[in-house]
Structure prediction request, 601 residues.
Amino acid sequence: MPLIVIAEDEFLIADLLTIILEDAGYEVASASHGRAALALVRDKRPALVITDYMMPLMTGLELAQAMRADGDLAHIPVILVSGAQGSIGRAHPDVFEAVLDKPYNEKKLLETVSRLLS
Amino acid sequence: MHELPRLSTGIPRLNIILGGGLVEGASYIVQGQPGAGKTIFSNQVAFAKASRGGKVLYVTLLAETHDRLFQALGTLDFFDRTQLGVSIFYVSVFQTLREEGLSAVVSLIRQEIARQGATLLVFDGLLNASDRGDTTLDVKTFVAEVQSQAAFAGCTVLFLTSTRFAEDSPEHTMVDGVIELHNELVGVRTVRRLQVKKSRGSASLGGYHQFEITAAGLVAYPRLEAILSTEAIEDRSGAKRIASGTAGFDAMLGGALPESSVTLVFGPSGCGKTSLGLNFLNQASAEEPALHFGFYETPSRLLKKARALGVDLETPVNLGFLEVIYNPMTENLLDKLGHRLLDAIRSRGVKRLLIDGLGGFERAAVHPSRLVEFFAALTNEVRALGVTTIATWELRDLFGPTVTAPGSEISSLLDNLVMLRHVELGSRYKRTISVLKVRDSGYEPVIHELEFGSKGLSVTSALEPVTGATTGVATAIVPETDA
Prediction:
């Protein structure tokens, strides 16, 4: 099954996302800040990245920009899921394939993931 | 004297309590039980900082998600969603703590302060850090490292914790300040209060200070007697007299009310105290703006009452010469009332003030033992502001030998004492007025009758010779006749 990397500093949200995605049949790996997530992406080469915006050491935007700047990672779709920074994400359609607002809508999340992986 | 640079808290009057605000680059513990207001306190400081162009790093070790926090903060005026991720950065280090320990959290915070250019760090969850610390030394080291790294970057730190650190705890001794928030149950009501328990480099106001959490966030009310403990303005009471507006009363006072004096008018219900005050307010003008600070009548009821008494208050209200502030006799806070009154006086340069009545303050006092000091501070300040004041005080007994005026200590703080009474005489009730004291001035020591006419209350003739008039039950003195 496709591997999805989650970049999320809030463990409750990271755990919940992991459960939702694993229940849907995906493989999941998570990192608690942007820099760790970038290392994980480089190591695992996932099919998709779901990232928060506000995280220690590297924001979701910086993570996505770093991936786009890396030829080996630039093709990996990135979803920004954010409670308050959705507008920042929408201002950067070049780095985010999708922007979802919190609170989570599980159905919409899984539809978006499925669409981007198809 | 070298003044330390300050960080304004954005919490009304808290800067005064802190002796000028938080010290920039200093570290503080903000402690209190859950629900005490720590999170609102710190976020208000954070958004105030952000609104002035500063950068804030808000680090949490809490199980609560940031979205739930934002949802709760969204009900408060200071919360500005556009600052999130731009000027205020919320990050959770819970996983870092769980997986890598306190030293990794310290390292992460150091990097984040530098990356964000933060000048304010809020660390919410020192209790959790304490739990994770293997020894007391670990937490002490953690606090020391975070604050030294923050200070190096010129970053002020707020450590929030539900733990009540002992005053001799390492954490307490290491930080520059400790602010404690309480939610105290007094009878059936709760009263919020804060205390600056430690304030290195600042002359903070000691003791408890009440605060509220409103839609605007925290609003602090420094204890009036603490904030006004020194006479800031010279007492301007002088020889000038201010007309009372009640015909005949000025003559009894030896020539109107002394300017900048405080007059207590006391008597039972219905004897004319408020009417005397309304006459006083009716004299409001552009030169002598007036304020009605009352507890019993809404502004509309007050104007209606004045109209019924033949006193026109609508004209001075419409002209802006008179303001009516109504404080319902519900769950008031003593210092909130005091600050509200002084703010209203200062904002309009009020010169005529009617407090109707002092009992409203008494009822608001959670600790009645401080009323003397409170009234001393309040009356000193209104005198210093050049305000001539009439305050009413309702006697509990309509008739009787006992006159329950405010305590003797409070009465001594007042310049002039005027007593109104109903007097029963020959199966008739008469309203009477007598002057018991005018500070540093002569007055007429004669009981007079009061009458309500088409132009309101007025002082008329001296009461006929009786005994017992001050008890309310008088006996006519029958002239001796030659046998």
